[in-house]
Write a structure and sequence with these properties.
alpha/beta; eight-stranded mixed β-sheet; 13 helices; 8 strands; about 45% helix; binds NADP nicotinamide-adenine-dinucleotide phosphate
Length: about 325
């Protein structure tokens, strides 16, 4: 496939985000699939692993040989997913972990407990996501989408550094194409001002993931961690159905399934050589971070938001 067709799919949104884009691009990937057993002997952690893309990612990583920790916020839903996944892949090394990623104390407790049980971790997929219909605060008093998509993932990764350090560790942030519609929320990261719209809050927090990925990578560079932001296109998952019912009705025959949506997450986690970090990916290719001049932030604004995020997460700026 030519770069021109790929770019046209990307800019036209509907074909690029649905399974049309996946199948057109897929024809160029035959030799690019992670090799069988690519993650043998490696350990991965996937948040929001009981549903949709997280569940498909956990299964995909386990199929490549990884031991996979499924992080869920609801133990019962997690146990159901764990049993189903064991049925789909007998012999898979799967572990159930309970943690609400939006709750920073819960994240700290979870990270400490996990570090006491494992000595290495190779892949972290920050997939847990939500689109709150009305403004909701996390237990720490932050708007829920920024707490779930940015603060929790940052704290979790930072605390897991002792296990991640050294052997090509990779962190994947599952963002969204919706972030193209929003600027970095420099002056109101907690969305305290103006009338709240869940889709805007969601897209702002997903923009933060993409913009901050290079700064996270820089923070963890001495441990060799690469940080990859990506978007899965549109995949027919329980979350998509409940958050965007109208879009789902209109696009349903064309939507990806969770396996197609998870493809680039798994590829970023397992392909060799390691893709360059700090970039934004879709369908195994780095994509622009902006399509509109109006959404561009300055270097100074990026650092302002980074400073806010570090403080809100209770992390040392160093
Ligand atoms: N599907 C798409 O087309 C699409 C497009 C762009 C981006 N995404 C992103 O892809 C990711 C997965 O979404 P999905 O479509 O697979 O939706 P989903 O089926 O609703 O899955 C989301 C998962 O995240 C979990 N979760 C939510 N808040 C959590 C928290 N505070 N702590 C721990 N787990 C939490 C959910 O747990 P419960 O089951 O307990 O609710 C669920 O397991 C999200 O980050 C979403 O923003 C999806």
């Amino acid at each position: 496939m030519t770069g021109l067709v790929d770019t046209a799919l990307d800019r036209a949104v509907v074909p690029g985000y649905t399974k049309i884009g996946y199948w057109v691009r897929r024809r160029g990937w035959e030799r690019d699939d992670p090799r069988p057993g690519a993650l043998h002997g490696r350990r991965a952690l996937v948040t929001g692993a009981n549903s949709g893309l997280g569940r498909a990612t956990a299964l995909g990583l386990a199929r490549l040989g990884a031991s996979v920790h499924l992080v869920v916020r609801n133990e019962e839903r997690g146990r159901t997913a764990l049993e189903e996944l064991r049925g789909e892949l007998p012999g898979a090394d799967l572990h159930l972990e309970v943690c609400d990623i939006s709750d920073l104390d819960a994240v700290r407790r979870f990270a400490a407990g996990l570090l006491a049980r494992i000595d290495r971790l190779d892949v972290v997929v920050h997939n847990a996501g939500a689109l709150p219909p009305e403004r909701t605060e996390s237990v720490d008093g932050h708007e829920l989408s920024v707490a779930t998509h940015v603060l929790g993932p940052l704290v979790l990764t930072d605390l897991l550094r002792p296990a991640l350090a050294g052997r090509d560790p990779r962190v994947v942030l599952v963002s969204s194409g919706g972030m193209y519609t929003q600027r970095l929320p420099v002056h109101d990261p907690d969305y305290r001002r103006g009338s709240y719209r869940g889709t805007v809050a969601y897209a702002r927090s997903k923009r933060m993931q993409v913009t901050l990925a290079p700064l996270m990578q820089q923070r963890w560079s001495t441990d060799g961690i690469t940080v990859h932001a990506m978007h899965p296109g549109w995949a027919d998952t329980p979350g998509f159905a409940s958050s965007l019912p109208l879009l789902r009705t209109v696009t349903r025959p064309l939507l990806r399934d969770a396996v197609l949506g998870a493809d680039t997450i798994i590829w970023l986690a397992a392909t060799e050589p390691t893709p360059p970090g700090g970039q934004f990916w879709q369908d195994r290719a780095a994509r622009p971070e902006h399509y509109h001049k109006a959404t561009r932030e300055t270097e100074d604004e990026r650092h302002q938001v980074w400073a806010w995020v570090l403080e809100a997460a209770g992390l040392d700026p160093a």
